[in-house]
Amino acid sequence: MKKLILALFILMIIPQMGYCALLDREVNILNLKENNMYVLDLDVSVKNIQVSNKNIVNVMPITSISNEKNQLFIEANQSGVCDVILTTDLKSYQLRLISGPNFQDTRNDLTLIDIPSDIEIK
User: Fold this and answer.
1) Angle of CA points 99, 28, 100, to nearest 5°
2) What pLDDT score was predicted for residue 16?
3) With b meaning 16 or more CB within 10 Å and e meaning fewer, what string describes 80-95?
4) Cα distance between residue 70 and residue 66, in whole Å
5) 75: closest CA among 46, 109, 34?
6) What is the pTM of this model?
7) Residues 14, 7: contact at Cβ < 8 Å?
8) pLDDT tens per residue, the chain (122 residues)?
9) What confidence score (pLDDT) does residue 48 get?
10) What are phi and psi of 117, to 5 degrees?
11) In what order do the strands lie in the sheet with 36-41?
12) pLDDT at 17
C-alpha cells in the first residue's frame, strides 16, 4: 500500500516539473551568456512571439508532431537587453532577456544546449 501511494504521489509531481512558471503581471527576467543557445520549457502553448531586437536574442518556437509549441529555442547572439512578448490563448507574458559575456545566476527553467562552436570535419 505504501508503494502504491508513493507511486501516485510521484506521478502527480512529475508533470509539474520542468516547466517555466511565467508570471503574467510582471516582467520575467532571464540571464543568458552570449553566443549560447537555450531551450525554455513552458506549460502553455505560445501563439505569437514579438522580439524587440533580433540582433541580440533570437527566439523561435519548437514545434513537435502535435504542434504544441510548448518550448522556445533562444539564441543569445550579442550582449544587451532584449524584451520578448509571448502571447497565448488566454494571457500575455513579458520576458526581459539579458545577454552578456559573463554567466550570471539563471533560473532552472532554462536548459543550455551545449554545441561546440568549431566543428572540423576531415
Assistant:
1) 10
2) 45
3) bebebebebeeeebbb
4) 10
5) 34
6) 0.72
7) no
8) 766 665 655 555 544 444 566 777 788 888 888 888 888 888 888 899 999 999 999 999 887 776 677 888 899 999 999 999 999 888 898 999 988 887 666 666 777 887 665 655 55
9) 92
10) -80, -35
11) 57-62, 71-76, 36-41, 110-113
12) 46
CA-to-CA distance for 21 and 70, rounded, in angstroms?
12
What is the reported pLDDT for 120?
57
Locus of grid cell 502553448: 45
Task: Yes or no: say if 88 and 51 are a contact pair by the CB < 8 Å rule.
Answer: no
Non-local CB neighbours of 24 within 8 Å, separated by 6+ positions:
91, 92, 93
Distance in angstroms (rounded) separating the CA atoms of residues 33 and 48: 25
How far is the C-alpha of 11 from the C-alpha of 5, rounded, in Å? 10
3-state class percentages of the chain: helix first, strand second, coil last, to nearest 5 = 10, 45, 45
Distance CA 21, CA 55 (A): 26
Spatial separation of the C-alpha atoms in residues 106 and 67, rounded to whole Å: 28
pLDDT at 71: 85
